[in-house]
Structure to design on (391 residues):
């Protein structure tokens, strides 16, 4: 149902969207909320705004505590250059810490006491030369997006990650867990079900409104979208729409921004579901939506399976750089988005290689014969070896 907000509320929304600091944003959102009329059509919106207010309050409180030296960790784990980061989320006691230890060797304590992991905790998954950082985040329960338990920390850490791994415990109802996680993540600004996405990059006055529809508009046209964006004060911006989106959904996304994040499901505690009953229910519930892996068996094999599944959902490919003077490429691949060109890999390796780029030699799937000479715009494939020749 559309929100049909009065002009006064839309103006206050614009003020909130433009706020520079968290304090300003908090105040502006509170003003906005009091200007939103209470009826059926605004229920969802008011819930989103309330949870955003609660998140901001908690974040500010945590930042103050941290400044005062009372809590020694940040809201997220900094990323390492070139290494994707995956947040490991789940309900309390779902086996995240054990899984983190199994997959990364991190020395974390598993414990029957729920909520034992309070700070985002990293470990490095290494398989076939691929490095992926896993971060166990505090447990998520219903209301996490409004700050319950350590929900604010969990969601901030998840927002910082490139992808989400959901640990679903097969000794508890898997469907309930999945629903709680998906909906709290959504309230926290993360869409793991790949619904419509609206990206707004605000620009300087006079820039204009540049709209790119990468998906499809349902029952509306680009002019309708421009009108609604303008109504909410989005006049100078680059706007991208992905997926299928109706005008109501676009309005909802303006008021409650979410980003899509690739996700996989890791089913834990398989030993407590010997007949596979819960696993079967989980499989049918998420079939066609998210990839699912059963955590069982040889740890070495498991590490490889998880690493490859994560690369697939993030749509990353492995490229092995080879120095001209060496006969073998490096063991550790560079992970780049599918569709990456040779020149982009050169830039990642060293600015000198992209500035002085002459040509490259490639071995692998993207070329017709091993060692073929290619130009800067040649598109690489998974597993390719590339040798850059530069002046
Ligand atoms: N039977 C069985 N028990 C498990 C398995 N994985 C974890 N556990 C137990 O489940 C409890 C919780 O495990 P953790 O790994 O600490 O769970 P968590 O999700 O990190 O929990 P919190 O961080 O406290 O929310 C502990 O008592 C573990 O020993 C498993 O595969 N099988
Ligand atoms: Mg834990």
């Amino acid at each position: 149902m559309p929100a049909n907000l009065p002009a006064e509320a839309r103006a206050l929304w614009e003020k909130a969207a433009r706020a520079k600091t968290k304090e300003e944003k908090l105040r502006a959102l509170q003003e906005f909320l009091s200007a939103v009329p209470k009826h059926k059509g605004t229920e969802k919106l008011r819930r989103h705004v309330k949870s955003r207010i609660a998140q901001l309050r908690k974040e500010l409180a945590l930042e103050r505590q941290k400044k005062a030296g009372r809590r020694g960790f940040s809201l997220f784990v900094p990323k390492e250059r070139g290494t994707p980061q995956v947040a490991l989320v789940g309900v309390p006691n779902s086996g995240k810490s054990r899984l983190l230890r199994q997959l990364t060797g991190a020395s974390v304590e598993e414990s029957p006491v729920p909520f034992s992991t309070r700070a985002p905790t990293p470990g490095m998954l290494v398989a076939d030369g691929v490095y992926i950082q896993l971060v166990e985040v505090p447990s998520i329960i219903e209301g996490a997006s409004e700050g319950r338990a350590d929900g604010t920390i969990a969601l901030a850490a998840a927002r910082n990650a490139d992808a989400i791994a959901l640990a679903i415990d097969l000794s508890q109802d898997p469907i309930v867990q999945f629903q709680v996680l998906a909906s709290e993540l959504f309230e926290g600004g993360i869409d793991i079900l790949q619904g419509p996405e609206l990206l707004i990059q605000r620009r300087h006055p006079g820039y204009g409104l540049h709209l790119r529809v990468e998906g499809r508009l349902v029952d509306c046209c680009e002019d309708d979208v421009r009108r609604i964006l303008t109504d909410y004060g989005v006049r100078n911006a680059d706007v991208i729409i992905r997926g299928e989106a109706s005008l109501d959904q676009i309005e909802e996304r303006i008021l409650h921004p979410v980003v899509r994040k690739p996700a996989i499901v890791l089913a834990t505690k398989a030993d407590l579901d010997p007949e596979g009953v819960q696993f079967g229910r989980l499989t049918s519930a998420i079939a066609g939506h998210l990839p699912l892996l059963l955590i069982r068996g040889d740890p070495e094999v498991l590490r490889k399976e998880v690493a490859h599944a994560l690369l697939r959902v993030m749509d990353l490919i492995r490229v092995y750089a080879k120095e001209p003077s060496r006969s073998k490429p490096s063991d550790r691949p560079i992970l780049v988005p599918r569709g990456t060109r040779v020149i982009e890999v050169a830039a990642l390796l060293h600015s000198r290689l992209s500035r002085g780029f002459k040509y490259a030699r490639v071995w692998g799937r993207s070329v017709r014969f091993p060692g073929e000479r290619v130009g800067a715009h040649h598109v690489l494939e998974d597993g390719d070896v590339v040798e850059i020749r530069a002046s």
The chain has a mean pLDDT of 91. Residues 43-67 form the longest helix (25 residues). The radius of gyration is 23 Å.
